[in-house]
Amino acid sequence: MRSVRDLIIFGSAWEDDRAHIRQSLKHFYNPINGRGLYFGNVTVGIPSPNWTLEAGGETFQGASPPQQFSYRLARKHFLDALTKSAKSERNENWGLTFQTVGHIVHHMQDMAQPQHTRNDQHCDIAPCELTGALGGVKPSYEKWTDIVGNTDDVQRQGYDPVYVSTGEKKFAKPFEFWKHPATGVGIAEYSNRNFFTSGANVDSTEFLLPVVLPGEVFKTPIGVLCAEQLARGRSPCSGLSAGVLFGSMGFYRTLAVDNLRPDQTTANPRATTKSIYNEDLRLRGLLGTSGAIGLAGYSVNRFTYESQNNFVLKRAVAYSAGMINYFFRGDIDFIEDLAEPGTYKIRNDGPDAIKGRFQLCYDHGTTGNETRTCFKSWDNLEIAAGGAVSAGTFQIPTSPAPLKPNEYMLVFNGDMGEEKAADFDGIGAVTARKVTLKPPQMFYLFRTDGPPDHPSGTIDIGLFGNEALWSAMAVHPQGFSAAITSGGVRRSIPMDRGGTGQFATCAHSPNDRVIPECAYRGGTVQVGLTGAGWLLRLHRGNQFILTTDVTGHDLIMIGANPEDLGLRPIETVCGGRFVYSSALYLTYPRTTGPVKFELFYAKDAMTEPRPVFSFTVGDMDIAPGQNFGAKIRELQGVERTPIHCGVNIEP
């Protein structure tokens, strides 16, 4: 099985290895005229960005051979990798996603090679070299890189990726990585305007840039040049000792202009050289008048390539990394709406406004062969960068049961900034986030039905609340309402807030009421027990402290999540002893049979109350000698903790 890195590398390499389908003919792009590889008026290759992107409805599926690894198809693979039902399909599309990104990255690297952006036809197969086909220009630069192998690390470093989510935002569309009409920051534009090639040197009538800087030619003794190469472990002088070579080579300078990062604009000291035939041509009057130098008067060679590499290699890396960052950009989240418990928000933490479809998916089945179901969707949602919109409520899926409770995948596809869904088969940009949604969790639940001469029963609920519930109870307690159904009769229960506008204290009362005082008050809330043994103290925000006795000594553990209770054996936490209420306490008319409890919240008087959670409590289920326990079922918006005292989930 290949890693993500290996898949990208494989795709990048295979983009060139498919010589049998003439793939390399699509690796040229002249940003001045927008053409691919051409001879005069004859175009022989589809422009690199057109072939790579397949944007705006332009596709090459009917080409011979068809395009199989485009940006458009990569977007489709990415969405399928996140949403397809079968695990095998998702895995296949993950592989195709990363491999196709590798094919795209190959074009970034080719655009950094000036021969690909200055229509410098080059071919390294025998028929071309023997017959002079494709203009007879040999790929001397690429042959040189093959000879020297892996170049020095310094030539690959020192230039950060051109697109990062928290940095520069100069690439709004994928095409702009090739050419940015407004700013000229594309990689094809950079290599086109700044470097000479074998077929387009100083006096090219088609490419007017770069321009050699005025001043004397910089002459460097051949022995010095050879010594430099020998120091790098290379042998450019046919094995001869540098000391027996005489003469010098004249280098001309240019200014390598960087429109993306102007502070990186600097002189290229060895942009091109005088040809070894220059002097003979001058003596024969073949260089023109006023010292004008003809095409034969200049040449590029291994020394100019060495200098050129210091510029283009690091940018090839930076634009490749930038394209990967751009493709996988986007940052979304699915969060509790703290202003309205029981509801959620979709948040856009990315740098671009987004508009499109959101899906909430979950896995079920068996580990290793998970089936994915997208059970909730929101279409045409529009969220500004840094903004959020309400997603309302959703029914937690129970059939089939989630493989990992509370774990979901939020998936988006659509418009993201200037990348539009209409340009890519209606799919557009794709991003996702794995989210964990934890409803309030029951630590214990205790039901007591009074004796025949007592008018009421009680239910005592210990909760680990979520942030939204605790916050609303503290800030807006009047927004809560409740209902209880017993004996077939449903009735509202007033939320007793005492005389101060706050919830009343946790005290038993024969009145019908819900008293969630302990859920939000500051300070320590104690869960008591009968007799010595252990003490569990709950704090707001779910922090708990477990000690060995009621005096608070002999600390056992401190936790902030209800799962942490699972680190202790149930005998240690529960101990078979009765546990008193720490969150909600309610009374109801005495009855037999199930009792259903519902909690609602409304952010203001004009808003319809929304359900926060509900559950049904069966009759007491206790054995002789025990004094706690109950069966609960039909849970909505609430679940039990991994470890619990006195709670049984009824099938």
Oligomer: single chain
Q: Which percent range describes the beta-strand content? A: 25-35%
Sheet with the most strands, sense and barrel status: 6 strands, mixed
Tell me roughly what share of residues is in helical segments. 10-25%
Please list the strands of the largest sheet in the order they lie side by side: 17-16-23-24-25-27
Helix-strand makeup class: alpha+beta
Radius of gyration: 36 Å
Unreliable sequence segments: 129-136, 288-295, 497-532, 578-582, 621-627
Average predicted confidence as pLDDT: 79
Total beta strand runs: 27
Distance between the termini: 42 Å
Query: Given the C-alpha coordinates, what overall shape results?
Result: elongated
Number of helices: 12
Keywords:
651 residues, alpha+beta, six-stranded mixed sheet, four-stranded antiparallel sheet, 27 strands
List the helices and strands and how they pair.
Elements: H1 4-17, E1 38-39, E2 42-43, H2 48-53, H3 71-83, H4 87-111, H5 126-131, H6 140-148, H7 187-194, E3 218-221, H8 222-231, E4 248-256, E5 266-274, H9 278-283, E6 298-299, H10 302-327, E7 332-336, E8 344-348, E9 354-366, E10 369-383, E11 388-392, E12 407-416, E13 429-436, E14 441-449, E15 456-464, H11 467-475, E16 480-486, E17 489-493, E18 524-527, E19 535-539, E20 544-547, E21 555-559, H12 570-573, E22 584-589, E23 595-601, E24 610-620, E25 630-636, E26 639-645, E27 647-649
Parallel strand pairs: 14-26, 25-27
Antiparallel strand pairs: 1-2, 3-4, 4-5, 5-6, 7-8, 8-11, 9-10, 9-12, 12-13, 14-15, 15-22, 16-17, 16-23, 18-19, 19-20, 20-21, 23-24, 24-25
